[in-house]
Amino acid sequence: MSLACWAAGDIFIPVEIEEDDIYTGIYKVLQTIRPDWPAERINFKLFTDGITNKLIACHLNNEIGEGNDVMLVRIYGNKTDLLIDRTAEIRNITTLNVLGLAPKIYGVFKNGLVYEYYPGVTLNVNSVVDTKIATKVAQQMAKMHKVQLGREIKEEPMLWDKIEQFLCLIPESFTEKVKQIRFANSFGSVTRLRIEFERLKLRLINTESPIVFAHNDLLLGNVIYNESKGTVSFIDYEYAAYNYQAFDIANHFNEYVGLSIDDIDYNRYPSKEYQMFWIRTYLSDYLSRDPSETEVEKVFKEVQQMSLASHFMWGVWSLVQYELSEIDFDFGKYAEIRLKRYYEQKDKIFSEPK
């Protein structure tokens, strides 16, 4: 990461945290951000050993809670800079923090950042459907969708360029023969995926869904619920950018089906009745008035179509990770799940009357 990647006011620490010795690196980072913290009193808690990042909480007290000084250290996954614009990520977090919509960044190091801890719990497949919590998620998304970036940032949907970027990163031939065989059996070829992408783009490019500043990766683990305050907060803005309103909503609904690769169950996908409630709640805040049933139905239909784009984008993303990532996660299986769902749903969704 170059110094150009950090925003004015952020502390840059010229440290790269090594994958096989993360705590030595974290100590070095904290020496700059919290020089008054005695090293022998610092406690660590691994929050996520995720499929792309590691997230570690650092604190002095025995317990992590409200009122304690807690630092979250996020270490980027190997080669994820090929997929994510880190300059834009830090700019977006800084912009949203001023508006109370994102955590404060305390410092940036070569392969990660340190930011504010939000007390609470991440959502799961049960809590996300709680109408009280869902209402707050919908309202928080509406607030984010009203954010305007500077005039130098074009209000264009990130979707098509991002999928194109991912497609370009899929190798014509995987380095491991067993992976290449599996890819060929499950997906055919990169050319076949490209043809399918062009078909999808042709169907969706003329959508009337508004362009908004979107999170684009609102999986359950990226929503923090603070029960005592009755609030929800969003985290991890790696893919935040202008995009279609309906994509952000659809992408969130697609995450209702499960948190882990072995727990995905499409019977959990929200019903039309639930989606209409959620969209109505969202539009009430986004439009600052009660929406008509026609307006709610219109967004619902756009969301169904954009759910296909969500499946396709993350399926292709997973194929890139299948080649590049060194993390112990079956990206091939995840790609199969998402793209299988895409192919299963596309004829049904596109055949429905407008």
TrEMBL record:
CDD domains documented for this protein:
ETNK_euk (cd05157)
Show which residues constitute the signal peptide. none
Q: Would you say which domain of life the source belongs to?
A: Eukaryota
Q: Name one GO biological process term.
A: phosphatidylethanolamine biosynthetic process
PANTHER family in alphabetical order: CHOLINE/ETHANOALAMINE KINASE, ETHANOLAMINE KINASE
One GO CC term of this entry? Answer: cytoplasm
Assigned EC number: 2.7.1.82
Q: Which Pfam families match?
A: Choline_kinase
Q: Its annotated pathway?
A: Phospholipid metabolism; phosphatidylethanolamine biosynthesis; phosphatidylethanolamine from ethanolamine: step 1/3
Name assigned to this protein: ethanolamine kinase
**Single annotated GO MF:** ethanolamine kinase activity
